[in-house]
């Protein structure tokens, strides 16, 4: 399914200020009518314009407790002063990417292929972010957007095609856009890490993580029994996301950009289920938005357990209908 594209008006840039902080105004974009885009995802057509942009077996206790022993002030200092300068790739509000989630993009326009080349040469990373529609009273009737829901992504594989390339990426951790550095031929900016605040009881976190992992295993066991539609491959995104969340990560960046194990697992449940309807995918997007805004690992784990429980009921009902149709 395709999504709309919006080109950015060069006169709309008034300077960047961190989004999602109430005391400050987010970066606004004035948008023009839809244009053909130069990048597609595996699920939909990505939303940005063809015109140039105008602005610049796992040992949980050992791993988690090692993170916990780091003094709070040291963590805060690392988060405050760490930053990366990376290429930026914007998407529409229906294309939020969360940590642990994978996505395949078809890049075929020259500027996006140039973005890919820079990302591969440097750290195999770029930033996936959302242009979120907002209402501005003095915008003169034009659509406006705010830059939000940034996610640092790692390039896992690249398949060269006759036209462009298929790029598999993985969400690593949340980031906020601190400023734009260039607009031509593609966006490039400075980003800072965003992680959950506070340290809960290690035992409580450990218990919740175990529950989420067990629940994800149960859901995945049911999901693989679903008979896929003729035009749909059987997805195993839950198992894939959990596998990634549990493994020891080796990334070429400051560890402040890498979420804790518990935080990574709290995002792993936010994956689409095979055969999901449009309404179910919409509900999942809303859950993703809430999870990206949340700064409490324990609350997100609780939310994941609730979502998994709902999905288990949904898949069980679909399996019952499937068995009736096959009998």
UniProtKB/TrEMBL annotation:
Alphabetical list of Gene3D superfamilies matching this protein: LON domain-like
Top-level taxon in the UniProt lineage: Eukaryota
Limits of the Lon N-terminal domain: 86-312
UniProt-listed SUPFAM superfamilies: PUA domain-like (SSF88697)
Protein name per Swiss-Prot or TrEMBL: Lon N-terminal domain-containing protein
Pfam families: LON_substr_bdg (PF02190)
């Amino acid at each position: 399914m395709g999504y709309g594209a919006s080109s950015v008006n060069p006169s709309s840039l008034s300077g960047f200020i961190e989004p999602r902080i109430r005391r400050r105004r987010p970066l606004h974009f004035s948008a023009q009518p839809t244009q053909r885009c130069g990048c597609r995802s595996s699920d939909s057509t990505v939303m940005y314009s063809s015109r140039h942009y105008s602005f610049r077996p796992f040992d949980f206790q050992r791993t988690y407790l090692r993170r916990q022993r780091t003094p709070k002030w040291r963590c805060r200092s690392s988060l405050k002063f760490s930053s990366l300068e990376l290429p930026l790739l914007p998407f529409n509000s229906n294309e939020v990417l969360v940590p642990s989630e994978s996505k395949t993009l078809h890049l075929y326009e020259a500027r996006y292929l140039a973005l890919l080349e820079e990302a591969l040469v440097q750290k195999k990373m770029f930033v996936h972010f959302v242009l979120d529609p907002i209402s501005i009273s003095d915008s003169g009737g034009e659509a406006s957007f705010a830059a939000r829901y940034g996610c640092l992504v790692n390039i896992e594989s690249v398949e060269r095609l006759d036209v462009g390339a298929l790029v598999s990426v993985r969400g690593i951790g949340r980031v906020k856009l601190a400023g734009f550095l260039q607009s031509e031929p593609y966006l490039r900016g400075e980003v800072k890490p965003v992680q959950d605040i506070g340290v809960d009881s290690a035992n409580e976190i450990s218990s919740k993580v175990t529950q989420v992992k067990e629940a994800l295993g149960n859901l995945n066991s049911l999901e693989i029994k679903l008979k896929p539609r003729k035009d749909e491959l059987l997805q195993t995104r839950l198992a894939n996301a959990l596998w990634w969340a549990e493994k020891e990560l080796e990334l070429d960046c400051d560890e402040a950009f890498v979420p804790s194990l518990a935080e990574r697992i709290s995002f792993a449940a936010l994956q689409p289920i095979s055969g999901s309807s449009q309404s179910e995918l919409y509900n999942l997007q809303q859950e993703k938005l809430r999870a990206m805004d949340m700064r409490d690992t324990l609350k997100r784990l609780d939310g994941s357990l609730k979502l998994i429980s709902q999905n288990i009921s949904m898949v069980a009902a679909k399996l019952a209908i499937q068995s009736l149709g096959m009998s």
